[in-house]
Amino acid sequence: MPTAIRIGIIGDFEPSYHSHFATNAALYDAAAKLNAPLMLRWLPTPSLDCADAQKILGQWDGLIAGPGSPYQSFTGMLRGIEFARTQDWPFTGT
Amino acid sequence: MVTPLSCSLPSRREGGPKASGDEHLKITPGSQLHSICGSEDHFEQYYCNYGVNEEYEKQFQAAGLRVCARGMQGETRAVELPDHRFFIATLFQPQLSSRPESPHPFWVAFLRAAAQFQKTRSKRSASRAPRVKPRAKAATR
Lengths: 94, 141
What we know:
The complex is a heterodimer of chains A (about 90) and B (about 140).
Chain A: E1 5-10, H1 18-34, E2 38-43, H2 53-57, E3 62-65, H3 74-86, E4 91-93
Parallel strand pairs in A: 1-2, 1-3, 3-4
Chain B: E1 2-4, E2 19-27, H1 32-37, E3 41-48, E4 50-52, H2 57-62, E5 66-70, E6 76-80, E7 87-90, H3 105-127, H4 133-139
């Protein structure tokens, strides 16, 4: 079994938001196409508004800024984006 | 940086946000997004009320962001960092048109980039001094 691709979605998951559900679904479908196991977690924005944010963010192979502003912590979201930008981490926001 | 959209997309859904439904886009040739999408003409789905404030476009470009998709009136619809391994931000949502039988190429490309990064990150952290100490720790787990 190959190592799972670890993807962290920065955002405040709300199951009733179609965009959130669709983000998860699209990622699992893409992983199936690659025949690769996927480990997917949403990273709540307030959890990144702290000194340890880089430790949390650095655990993932790719980071996504989830849809659906306003976020609970805009600072947390910006920390995530800044980390990906300055550390050359795979990143997208859609 | 962002501003409420001044007009709706032609395909706006009843009761939906201004940008809902699909829109014809022009993907910038030579961009990373173009290499993913494979063509200049593209349709994508939206669910949003905001767009990029065009007054900031020059500042975005001066800071290194490249516009990689535009609406038919020239509006900014996606930006990317050319020298980054994968840094693409879009106003449209490729997840909305992705289907189990045909996952959107954007997400396949993103996962490929992440899988490649996973393989190379330990090598990379050894060859390049990390700017942030906790990262070196995380990379050797």
